[in-house]
Amino acid sequence: MTAALSGLTAPGTARTHDVAAAPRRHPGRWFAALALGVLCAGWVLSLWGNHNIDHATITDFLFDGRIVQGVLLTVALTACSMLLATALAITLAVMRLSVNPVLRVVSWAYTWFFRGTPLLVQIVFWGYLGLLYQKIGLGIPLTSVQFFSADTNVIVTPFVAGLLALGMNEAAYASEIVRAGLLSVDHGQVEAAHSLGMSPAYTLRRIVVPQAMRVIIPPMGNETISMLKNTALLQLIAVPELYTRASWISAQNLSQVELLIVASAWYLVLTSVLSIPQYYLERRYGRGAHRDLPMTPWQQARQSVGRLRTRLAQVAHAAPRNTRTETGT
């Protein structure tokens, strides 16, 4: 009886034999991070302190009106091309998963062709489409009846040619991303929806696509950023986007390196801005995969500020108390 009672521990009594585990220290990681930080800082300082770079030229042209117009056109091209690519990608992915063999073959052939030829070649082809077709018309095939006809160079301007080249090329890659997302949804979800009387289109829109977005969003965000940078290739067909305008200016003042830095700075800003909606979209569509979502950077900042305020309040309340204690003694 005494032995049994001795084995009991009173409530609130701390056990002396518990081991306080401490995380293992890894000083090598901190040294490696410090060395990497020093190397990066030294490279940036050496580049910025290079006497061959005219910093005044960078400052003058960073917000130049021509550069800003190029930035706006780059953003417009990226947005329009991704809208076209997304619409085509969804269509191609659904066609690839269709039971109709003709639709599957057409979707496969489109992807095979546009992924198999270089983007540079496609841009040049669309830019010089007028050499192949002098006029573009709309009428009844195999007859002389035409409802509309116009010069190709009037319809397919450099902006339209760049839009078609970027959008149709991107659609071939994005269709595989969409198809992978659709295949990631368990087929039992589709069968359950059909058993409830839902149509295939309604099932795709309300059941399959929302679950597939968790897989589609991350690579599509990367493709959008890649699209933004691929707009620089449109210099070949004289589309006045950011890189083209920077090249035109550098050809006049012979400040090639300074204008390249200006263009690179704008590309970095734009890609950083595009990363923000991608992060929140991934967070939104990842709610069903994680029980507790990690805090956003804004939530982490608010939490850190709240902890700092609490700590300062504790210190402020403790200071008068210590002063009264010292005075009383």
Q: What is the succession of H and E elements?
A: HHHHHHHEEHHHHHHH
The number of distinct β-strands equals: 2
Order of the strands making up the biggest sheet = 1-2
Mean pLDDT rating: 84
Helix content: over 70%
N- to C-terminal distance = 52 Å
What coarse outline follows from CA principal-axis ratios? flat
Q: What fraction of the residues are assigned to beta strands by DSSP?
A: under 5%
Q: Return Rg in Å.
A: 31 Å
Residue windows where pLDDT falls under 50 for at least 5 positions: 1-14
Report on the biggest sheet: 2 strands, antiparallel
Main structural class = mainly alpha
Count of alpha and pi helical runs: 14
Could you name the key traits of this structure?
329 residues; mainly alpha; two-stranded antiparallel ribbon; 73% helix; flat; disordered N terminus
Describe this structure in words.
By secondary structure, the chain is mostly helical. The chain has 14 helices and two strands. The chain has a two-stranded antiparallel ribbon. A hairpin with a 6-residue loop joins strand 1 and strand 2. Helix 4 crosses helix 9, helix 4 packs antiparallel against helix 12 and helix 6 packs antiparallel against helix 9.
Topology:
Blueprint: H1 2-6, H2 27-48, H3 55-62, H4 65-96, H5 101-116, H6 119-127, H7 129-132, E1 135-139, E2 146-151, H8 152-155, H9 158-183, H10 187-195, H11 200-230, H12 242-253, H13 256-285, H14 297-328
Antiparallel strand pairs: 1-2
Helix pairs in contact: 3-13, 4-5, 4-9, 4-12, 5-9, 6-9, 9-11, 10-11, 11-13, 12-13
